[in-house]
Design goal:
The protein is mainly beta. Helix content is 0%, strand content 79%. This is Curlin associated repeat-containing protein.
């Protein structure tokens, strides 16, 4: 066994430990300050580690087992900690950068192959990032950036062809991204503000989940299980809540919240569905559930909700295929409900004004059509269609 080499540049009062076993491994440590610690253990061939510490009481613990892995850790500040494990890995790369005090970064790459990368950057105090990558089948990529204080990011990848990105600017934000099994999956989160929380879970193939939050106290969640799924959440305001649940194939969901204290939930199962919910205002509620049938009549069903005002309520439920449902609310305290159980059904509700109520139920058969327009104050409309090729229209204007 040939011993690799280590370069060390250290000031007085510093602690350093390094163990290098294998061929052509390299370790370089540069320390400026007091009571900093760096421990590097390398087993294998061609591994490289670089540690730079400026400040006091910083720590780096690096273990490399495998071939041609690369690791770089840079710390500027006090009491920061970096922990890196590259176990049974080949050509993996990990970068960690900390500027501030009391930050924590944990990076674990086990049984991974060339092209797997993890990058973590922290600017501020008391931030924490945990990144875990495992799989021999293909490469992964993780990126986490924190600017502010007391932020948390957790990222896990157990598959291949996976990409995860988490960007936090502000204080006390939380982001969790879990990609389990499968391939060709992307998660993206951007949080700008304070006390925002996001969670993304993926398992399957060709999945794309994205969350963008600007404001304080928002919550966003995406769960994707299946193939060919797209989910997007955009929040601009405070105290909004959004959740998307997807299972099946070829489904798309979009939530946009502009205002405060809005709530939106989308649930999609089976095949070929699109759901869109847009809320502009405060304390609005939107719920969309799609469960298309399978078989010869399968086609895209679409559900759309647009709310402009305050305290509006909208709920859509679709079972079947090739159905279209639309709710538009322009005003305050309006309520609209739509249910479709069939094929080629169409339902449209348009409410302007205040305190309207509308309900459309289409069951059995198919090719039913119902439309409602209400203006003024306090109008009420109920349509129920059972069978096929029925037509109903309600128009209620100013009283």
């Amino acid at each position: 066994m040939k011993i690799g080499y280590m370069l060390c540049f250290a000031g007085s009062g510093l602690l350093l430990a390094s163990h290098v076993y294998g061929q052509q491994n390299t370790s370089q440590v540069l320390q400026t300050g007091n009571t900093n610690e760096a421990a590097v253990t390398q087993t294998g061939t061609g591994n490289a580690s670089e540690a730079a510490q400026t400040g006091n009481r910083n720590g780096q613990n690096v273990t490399q087992v495998g071939y041609y892995n690369q690791q770089e850790g840079t710390q500027t500040g006090n009491r920061n900690l970096v922990s890196v494990l590259q176990g049974s890995a080949s050509e993996a790369k990990a970068w960690a950068t900390q500027t501030g005090n009391d930050n924590r970064i944990r990076q674990q790459q086990t049984e991974v192959v060339a092209g797997t990368e993890a990058r973590a950057t922290q600017t501020g105090n008391r931030n924490a990032i945990s990144q875990e990558q495992t799989s021999r089948l293909g490469s992964h990529a993780l990126l986490a950036t924190q600017t502010g204080n007391d932020n948390r990011v957790t990222q896990v990848q157990l598959g291949y062809g996976q990409v995860g990105t988490a960007l936090q600017t502000g204080n006390a934000n939380r982001s969790t991204q879990n990609q389990y099994g499968g391939r060709s999956m992307t998660t993206y989160v951007e949080q700008l503000g304070d006390y925002n929380v996001s969670r993304q879970e993926q398992s399957g193939r060709n999945l794309d989940g994205r969350i963008s939050t600007t404001g304080d106290g928002n919550r966003a969640e995406q769960n994707q299980f299946g193939t060919e799924q797209n989910a997007l959440i955009t929040q601009l305001g405070d105290d909004n809540r959004a959740r998307q649940e997807q299972s099946g194939t070829r489904v798309n969901a979009t939530i946009t919240q502009l205002g405060d204290a809005n709530r939106s939930v989308q649930t999609q199962a089976n095949e070929d569905m699109r759901a869109t919910a847009t809320q502009t205002g405060n304390r609005n509620r939107a719920e969309q559930t799609q469960a298309n049938s399978t078989g010869t009549n399968v086609g895209v069903s679409e559900a759309t909700i647009e709310q402009d005002g305050d305290q509006n309520r909208a709920r859509q439920q679709q079972n079947g295929s090739r159905n279209t449902a639309t709710i538009e609310q322009d005003g305050n305290q309006n309520t609209a409900r739509q249910r479709q159980d069939g094929f080629y059904d169409s339902a449209t509700t348009y409410q302007t004004g205040t305190e309207h109520f509308s309900s459309i139920v289409q069951t059995g058969g198919g090719a039913n059509n119902a439309s409602v327009y209400q203006g003024g104050v306090g109008q009420s409309s109920v349509i129920e269609q059972t069978g096929a090729v029925n037509r109903a229209t309600v128009h209620q204007d100013h009283p």
